[in-house]
Amino acid sequence: MIDLRSDTITKPTENMRLAAYHSNVGDDVYGEDPTVNKLEEQAAEMLGKEAALFVTSGTQGNQIAALTHCNPGDEVILEASAHIYLYEAAAFSALAGVQSRPINGYRGAMDPEEVKSAIRSEDIHFPVTSLICLENTHNKAGGAILPLENMQAIYQIAKDRNISVHLDGARLFNASVASGVTLKEYGQNADSVQFCLSKGLGAPVGSIIAGNKSFIDEARKWRKRLGGGLRQAGIIAAPALVALEENVERLTIDHENAQYLADEIANIKGVKVENKVETNILLVNVKGTGHDAVSFIDVLKKENILAVPFGPDTIRFVTNYEVTRENTKTAIARINGVL
Ligand SMILES: Cc1ncc(COP(=O)(O)O)c(C=O)c1O
């Protein structure tokens, strides 16, 4: 089976399992887990932030950010196909009680002028705009990298109006490795940053949110309220430290394999790559095969290839550390064989 559904499906490496086994642990709700403390310190340092918090998932990190930055009844500006808006089960409204204000972007990037004009003025009829969310890389836009200049422009607008910026950087390491922009440069253009340890980095569990100390102190309380205060969490923080140590630079291989798939698919009749492949995601339009996304996925499954639907006629392929170049070659041969 060649599993191209996501970069979340990888199993922990032997080093990760060994690190979990040998981890030095304590009660993290008391702040006494040395491995979690190390992970949080290291993550904060990497992003150039004062502090960081280990959370159970990317979704939990994004929700804690909204709960910490906003009050119920506030409005949050975000891109119309942001993960937070499309794929987090309306948690912004269900949990933080905030209203989302979606803005159509280009390859995941909102036009700063449109963001500016969406910010509410003081009026008894209006909610308060308290947060702007960015996503880098942008999942629905096919792993598109948000240009640093775009982030800088939006961050400046937000600061002029005293609004917070949250970066959903579930795949921020992919963005950094591919663009050469450092994590700190990205971090400078957001008040809080969430990144996933369990995507391309390959850790079995967890995400980080980072920000200034007072933000993280309050976020820690929100994590507790949500039931995310874990005890001997070092057992899952240890493999996450291995992920940061061993799996950052190698993301380039995932990007090269995604590009290889895109280049080869361009030569196959009936299928078409929709996005400019910048990182580890490609969006493949299958309309020309006579199938829709769901039925084409069934065809692929019979050939031992797994993918997910990403639109009526679009399927998504994601590379990860278990997808070797050999696998991508086999996948292309199998797709060629059925078309
Ligand atoms: C951009 C983005 N943000 C957040 C998440 C949520 O992460 P998790 O699945 O860990 O909740 C995802 C998951 O795919 C994502 O792609």
What can you see in these coordinates?
The chain is 42% helix and 16% strand. It is of the alpha/beta class and 339 residues long. The strands form three sheets. It has a seven-stranded mixed sheet with strand order 2-8-7-6-5-3-4, with helices on both faces. It has a four-stranded antiparallel sheet with strand order 9-10-13-12, with helices on one face. A two-stranded parallel ribbon has the order 1-11. Strand 9 and strand 10 (281-285) form a beta hairpin. Helix 2 packs parallel to helix 11 (234-246). It starts with a strand and ends with a helix. Pyridoxal-5'-phosphate (PLP) binds at residues 57-59, 62, 83, 135, 139, 168, 170, 196, 198, 207.
Beta-strand residue fraction: 15-25%
Largest sheet composition: 7 strands, mixed
Residue ranges: pLDDT <50 for 5 or more in a row? none
**Terminal residue distance:** 19 Å
The count of β-strands is 13
Helix/strand order, N-terminal first? EHHEHEHHEHEHEHHEEHHHEEHEEEH
Q: What's the quaternary structure here?
A: single chain
Which percent range fits the helix content? 40-55%
Q: Going across the biggest sheet, name each strand in turn.
A: 2-8-7-6-5-3-4
Quote the average pLDDT.
98
Number of helices: 14
User: Which word captures the global form?
Assistant: globular
Radius of gyration: 20 Å
* Ions and ligands: pyridoxal-5'-phosphate
Judged by helices, strands and strand pairing, the structural class is alpha/beta
